[in-house]
Amino acid sequence: MWWLTKRKKVDIISAGWLEGMTDIHCHLIPAVDDGSRSLDESRQLIEAMRSIGIQRIITTPHIYRRYPHNDSNTLHEGLERILPDLSDLGVPLTLGAEYMMDEGFETQLTKPLLTLGSSKYLLIETSFVGAPLDLYRLIQLVISAGAIPMLAHPERYLYMGDEEYSRLRGAGCAFQLNLFSLTGMYGEQVEKRAQQLLERGFYNFVGTDTHRIDFFRKTISSAKTYARYREPIRSLISNNQTLVASLE
Known about the structure:
17% strand, three-stranded parallel sheet, TIM Barrel, globular
């Protein structure tokens, strides 16, 4: 019966929802932020990601005041340093970044930008407790710099409401879903918010936001959401591929 199908939850890993996915948001360069802590952990993460169907990765280390040495130059060096040791895994690894809109953000916009893959999309985030007072001015600065702002995990900004999400879309922001928000990784409130945004068609892209191997293994061991979300998620996965298409 249709209402039973609508309420049915499935394990998205065993159901193969992620087959062929390009992950556009994760933290795999060792010891540059709160992601992978070592080359060995990066290797384990990539192996685990490959095992669930992920075939290509754009790694997106944090750029904000907590990590003052992170910029385009240092992060390129960090990626180049590990690529030879990971090439045998057969998962192409490309560099992007996740930019915090903090007091150093404007300075970062004057430097070479780490957009996602071959695209103009710049992954941005705000604090989880509130947006900067000049949020829309900063978004316009991203656009003036020749990039397209992509807001990371908007479902996690519980201080935002429907009006704010709509205004952000109207200002030119794309939205990136953290996939495992739908499976309860960040709690019930975030899960419900992700469902609402997905059902209303707010999302453009999807990523895993993978950081640490132990947590990732726990997450994928029981990753269930409603079966009705399969096609929307597969559509977002297809959109991801456009960000790296010219690199293949």
